[in-house]
Amino acid sequence: MEIKDAPYWLSLHRLQGIGNAKLLNLIAHFKSAEAVFAGRRADLSAILGNHPDVIASIQKGPDRSMIEADLAWLQQGHNHLICILDTGYPPLLREIPDPPGLLYVKGQSSLLADPQLAIVGSRNPTPAGVETCQQFAAHLCQAGLTITSGLALGIDAAAHEGALQCNSNTIAITGTGLDRVYPASHHDLAHRIAEHGALVSEFPLGTPPQRGNFPRRNRIISGISLGTLVTEAALRSGSLITARLAADQGREVFAIPGSIHSPLSRGCHQLIRQGAKLVETATDILEELSPLAATWIQPDNVKPNQTGATDIDPGLATLLACIGHEPVDPDMLVKRTGLTAAQVSSMLSQMELLGLVSICPGGSYMRKT
């Protein structure tokens, strides 16, 4: 957006009494934010209804004092505003029923038009869930997809990290203004995303993390992406909201299955029962998305996101055969193998170093191969 247009958009966006729906209606009628401020009272009333205070504020023109900090932020390098009328506005996002009229972007704004896959999931995932998420993100990046998520704890952070670790792009859609980072512990992660991808928000600068912001953010995560992958989610989960939004928006929904005994698998299993595609490898996703973005996606670049357990010590192999893909505690392994507790403990430590198993909450173990 050219800087001369920014004051009109910023002022309109910050006016009390004008939410996103009314902003879109005003733009649809007047064709530009500048024209809204020059609009006749009768036309404004027809769109806004009986709100004389709001109409009076519009007719006063842009309030420079209200947007001074916004304009200063916009002058900084790599900070951008993208309105729904801009050619750089994400084309898929424009198609959803309630697209954001204005986006604040910190980083590479051009990435918003690239083919993206959203990855979402639990804020309290298992170690195996984090590793699986990072592996999927890395492999999908190799094929040409940009990974999009919500900067939240758990799976969101793992998705961003998986992309960054393979030097690929990632986009974080936030539920706050871009001058804030939530959660605060992700300050460093947000900085790296801004350097190697983009932070995006529809909320004005200064907006704190409020409960109602995050469902609104979720519609952008799903709407800007070709599909949404859910990795570990409880039955009551914001990730399921994102998945339902994706389905409502006509996007693909993918889910990674897990143990029938794990509460974090139940959300994914429910999605699969409702029609989400069960996926075991990155290739499963690419097979669905390649026809939608053939120019960018290159499935041949993807390496299998599975590891083998060949050529290991026979004793370790025997113990590994007694460990399933569900958490098991060392005492149970002693019973299954007949080994001593000391032997099991030593062998588990070796297998963890070899990347064959991961330790779960409570001191139990789960195989990774």
Please characterize this protein's 3D structure.
This protein is α/β, with parallel strands linked by helices. It folds into 3 domains: about 5-75, no CATH class; about 110-300, Rossmann fold; about 315-365, Orthogonal Bundle (Arc Repressor Mutant, subunit A). The chain is built from 17 helices and 11 strands. The strands form 2 sheets. It has a 9-stranded mixed beta sheet, sandwiched between helices. Strands 10-11 form a two-stranded antiparallel ribbon. Helix 9 (about 155-165) links the parallel strand 4 (about 145-150) and strand 5. It is elongated, with a radius of gyration of 24 Å. Mean pLDDT is about 90; it is low at about 305-310.
The major pleated sheet works out as: 9 strands, mixed
The pLDDT mean sits at 90
Number of helices: 17
**What is the fold-level CATH name, i.e. the topology of the largest domain?**
Rossmann fold
Strand line-up of the largest beta sheet = 1-2-6-5-4-3-7-8-9
Total strand segments: 11
Poorly predicted ranges: 304-309
Radius of gyration: 24 Å
Task: Give the class from helix and strand content and strand pairing.
Answer: alpha/beta
- Which bin fits the share of residues in helices? 40-55%
Strand content: 5-15%
In terms of quaternary structure, what is this? single chain
What count of structural domains? 3
Structural shape: elongated
Note the run of SSEs as H and E: HHHHHHEHEEHEHEHEHEHEHEHHHHEE
CATH architecture of the largest domain: 3-Layer(aba) Sandwich
What's the level 1 CATH class of the largest domain?
A: Alpha Beta
